[in-house]
């Protein structure tokens, strides 16, 4: 089955700096890679996703890159703000194979943005 | 529109007792998923319903766990008897589209087994 590794487990950055979280996956058949953000005490929420037919996707201050050959994908947050402090989860799935969206998650990265 | 709701938010039980967690998906979402996060590790898939049918229950750890979704609306996840290693946060998620698209998560039910 799929295995997703996520690094680092914790990340502390100064407000205004950039944050990068990296994930690797094992199943070359995976084709959908979402990122979820979970603020303290709240539900995980999708912030951005990418499919294997593109290499990069950007939405305001967040961007995701995908390298299918190396089987890794990354989340980039620029100009970090205190409200970016949260736990971020990467995930992978095979949208074609699965009858549903069975996601395999990484272990999460706790991001702390210091004012 | 109401999001995915889960109850209880936190349950503390003793080893050997029974606990039932409930999930109400977003109205109209046929797909319902249960996930679990244990000891700050990754969020792991437990099972997937399409309406009232179990589509995939490959992640269920053992037969102490029983999930139901009678009538294809809300779902329950029963743990009987609970063991210490069952402690964690149980997330429910729903989606409208099979095989693709965003999963909408609930806030989770934290289970503590003493």
Name a few traits of the molecule.
heterodimer; A: 115 residues; mainly beta; 6-stranded mixed sheet; 5-stranded antiparallel sheet; 0% helix; B: 114 residues; 7-stranded mixed sheet; 49% strand
Write the layout of secondary structure elements.
The complex is a heterodimer of chains A (115) and B (114).
Chain A: E1 4-7, E2 10-14, E3 19-25, E4 32-38, E5 45-51, E6 56-59, E7 62-67, E8 72-77, E9 86-92, E10 104-105, E11 109-114
Parallel strand pairs in A: 2-11
Antiparallel strand pairs in A: 1-3, 3-8, 4-5, 4-9, 6-7, 7-8, 9-10, 9-11
Chain B: E1 5-7, E2 10-13, E3 19-24, E4 31-37, E5 43-50, E6 53-56, E7 65-68, E8 75-79, E9 88-95, E10 104-105, E11 109-113
Parallel strand pairs in B: 2-11
Antiparallel strand pairs in B: 1-3, 3-8, 4-5, 4-9, 5-6, 7-8, 9-10, 9-11
Can you offer a commentary on this structure?
The complex is a heterodimer of chains A (115) and B (114). Chain A is mostly beta strands. Chain A is built from no helices and eleven strands. The model of chain A has no long low-confidence stretch (mean pLDDT 93). In chain B, 0% of the residues lie in helices and 49% in strands. In chain B, strands 2, 4, 5, 6, 9, 10 and 11 form a seven-stranded mixed beta sheet that branches. In chain B, strands 1-3-8-7 form a four-stranded antiparallel beta sheet, with no helix packed on it. The chains are: A mainly beta (115), B mainly beta (114).
What would a concise description of this structure say?
With 115 residues, chain A is mainly beta.
How widely separated are the two ends of chain B? 37 Å
Number of strands of chain A: 11
Order of helices and strands of chain A: EEEEEEEEEEE
Helix content of chain A: under 10%
Describe the biggest sheet of chain A?
6 strands, mixed
């Amino acid at each position: 089955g799929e295995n997703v590794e996520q690094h680092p487990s914790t990340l502390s950055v100064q407000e205004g700096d950039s944050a990068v979280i990296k994930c690797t996956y094992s199943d070359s058949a995976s084709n959908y890679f979402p990122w979820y953000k979970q603020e303290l005490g709240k539900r995980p929420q999708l912030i951005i996703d990418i499919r294997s037919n593109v290499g990069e996707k950007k939405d305001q201050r967040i961007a995701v890159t995908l390298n299918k050959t190396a089987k890794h994908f990354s989340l980039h947050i620029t100009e970090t703000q205190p409200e970016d402090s949260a736990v971020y989860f990467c995930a992978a799935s095979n949208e074609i194979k699965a009858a549903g969206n069975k996601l395999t998650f990484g272990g999460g990265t706790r991001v702390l943005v210091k004012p | 529109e109401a999001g995915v709701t889960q109850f209880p938010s936190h349950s503390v039980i003793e080893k050997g007792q029974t606990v039932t967690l409930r999930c109400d998906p977003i109205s109209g979402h046929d797909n319902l998923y249960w996930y679990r996060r244990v000891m700050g590790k990754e969020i792991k898939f437990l099972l997937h319903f399409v309406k009232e049918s179990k589509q995939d229950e490959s992640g269920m750890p053992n037969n102490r766990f029983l999930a139901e979704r009678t009538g294809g609306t809300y779902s329950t996840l029963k743990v009987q008897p609970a063991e210490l290693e069952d402690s964690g946060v149980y997330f429910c998620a729903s989606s409208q589209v099979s095989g693709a698209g965003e999963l909408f998560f609930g806030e989770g039910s934290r289970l503590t087994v003493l």
